[in-house]
């Protein structure tokens, strides 16, 4: 993780290198945090194309910044640049399990690897549930790996809080996320 390092909310402190992932309303870049010469990932959420309202986006960024578990992606910081919200987080060099299966394991991972990945993912889910969060989009594309074999669960875009009331509580009884996962 970033340890006790503090990352700035100044976009000129970051150099975007290349796109490493994308979704309906966000693109993820590998970047350099210039003051530390540290490789990071920056998730750029297009605020104009987001299906979520600003409160949902703010909630995701806040959830990510408060996370303190080795198997859950934590945001170092977040800030608005033009019409995008930049969320700075650790760079997971091996990418998602989905990406790895597509490029190197077209028949799927072997059972011992699956067991190891799922064990770490379940630790992440246990932590989130104990903190009152429901992820609601666990899938291969949201399970990230680095070159040390560290497993981290990412993407809180459709998460819900178990302790909320009203509309968010009712939303927990709805289907969201990715079908078949």
Automatic annotation (TrEMBL):
<keyword id="KW-0547">Nucleotide-binding</keyword>
<dbReference type="GO" id="GO:0005524">
    <property type="term" value="F:ATP binding"/>
</dbReference>
<dbReference type="Pfam" id="PF00069">
    <property type="entry name" value="Pkinase"/>
</dbReference>
<protein>
    <recommendedName>
        <fullName>Protein kinase domain-containing protein</fullName>
    </recommendedName>
</protein>
<comment type="similarity">
    <text>Belongs to the protein kinase superfamily. STE Ser/Thr protein kinase family. STE20 subfamily.</text>
</comment>
<feature type="domain" description="Protein kinase">
    <location>
        <begin position="14"/>
        <end position="181"/>
    </location>
</feature>
<dbReference type="GO" id="GO:0043539">
    <property type="term" value="F:protein serine/threonine kinase activator activity"/>
</dbReference>
<dbReference type="InterPro" id="IPR000719">
    <property type="entry name" value="Prot_kinase_dom"/>
</dbReference>
<keyword id="KW-0067">ATP-binding</keyword>
<dbReference type="GO" id="GO:0004672">
    <property type="term" value="F:protein kinase activity"/>
</dbReference>
<feature type="binding site">
    <location>
        <position position="43"/>
    </location>
    <ligand>
        <name>ATP</name>
    </ligand>
</feature>
<dbReference type="InterPro" id="IPR047173">
    <property type="entry name" value="STRAD_A/B-like"/>
</dbReference>
<dbReference type="InterPro" id="IPR011009">
    <property type="entry name" value="Kinase-like_dom_sf"/>
</dbReference>
<dbReference type="InterPro" id="IPR017441">
    <property type="entry name" value="Protein_kinase_ATP_BS"/>
</dbReference>
């Amino acid at each position: 993780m970033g340890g006790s390092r503090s990352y700035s909310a100044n976009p000129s402190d970051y150099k975007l290198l290349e796109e490493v992932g994308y979704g309906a309303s966000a693109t993820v870049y590998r970047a350099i945090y210039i003051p530390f010469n540290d490789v990071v990932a920056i998730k750029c959420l297009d605020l104009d194309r987001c299906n979520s309202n600003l409160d949902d986006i703010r909630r995701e960024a806040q959830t990510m910044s408060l996370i303190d578990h080795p198997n859950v992606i934590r945001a170092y910081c977040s800030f608005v640049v033009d019409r995008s919200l930049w969320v700075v987080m650790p760079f997971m060099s091996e990418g998602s399990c989905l990406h790895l299966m597509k490029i190197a394991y077209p028949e799927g991972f072997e059972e011992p690897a699956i067991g190891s990945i799922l064990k770490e993912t379940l630790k992440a889910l246990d932590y989130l549930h104990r903190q009152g969060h429901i992820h609601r989009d666990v899938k291969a594309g949201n399970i990230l790996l680095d070159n040390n074999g560290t497993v981290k669960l990412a993407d809180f875009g459709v998460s819900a809080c178990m302790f909320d009331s009203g509309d968010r509580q009712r939303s927990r009884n709805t289907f969201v996320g990715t079908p078949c996962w």
